[in-house]
Amino acid sequence: MNEEHIIAAILAAGLIANNKEENLAPKDAVGVYGLCLAELIEANRGPRDVATNA
User: Fold this and answer.
1) How many CB atoms lie within 10 A of CB 37?
2) Is pLDDT above 80 for 52?
3) Cα–Cα distance between 3 and 40 in angstroms, integer?
4) How far apart are CA 37 and CA 14, in angstroms?
5) What is the pLDDT of residue 14?
6) CA–CA distance, 18 with 32 (Å, rounded to integer)
7) What is the residue-wise DSSP string for 1-54?
8) Which of 31, 40, 48, 54 suits 23 as a labelling partner, its CA being 20 to 30 A distant?
9) Is 0.90 topped by the overall pTM?
């Protein structure tokens, strides 16, 4: 596991622990983790050059 996965797991665990309104299923926890990981990777990615990706 790399650093992004560990941080995403910690963030997801915190979000799930703070959720008092609904009962989350395991598949929901995996979804929360996936969203945390995606946001973390996107936040750490450098800016893309749109002209070269066309």
Assistant:
1) 17
2) no
3) 10
4) 14
5) 94
6) 13
7) --HHHHHHHHHHHHHHHH--SSPPPHHHHHHHHHHHHHHHHHHHSPPP-GGGG-
8) 40
9) no
* Secondary structure of residue 46 in the 3-state scheme: coil
In our burial notation (b when 16+ CB lie closer than 10 A, e otherwise), range 2-31 reads eeeeeebeebbeeeeeeeeeeeeeeeeeee
Element (H, E) at 20: none
The four Cα atoms 34, 39, 41, 44 give a dihedral, to 10 degrees, of -160
- In this structure, the chain runs to a length of 54
* pLDDT, position 28: 92
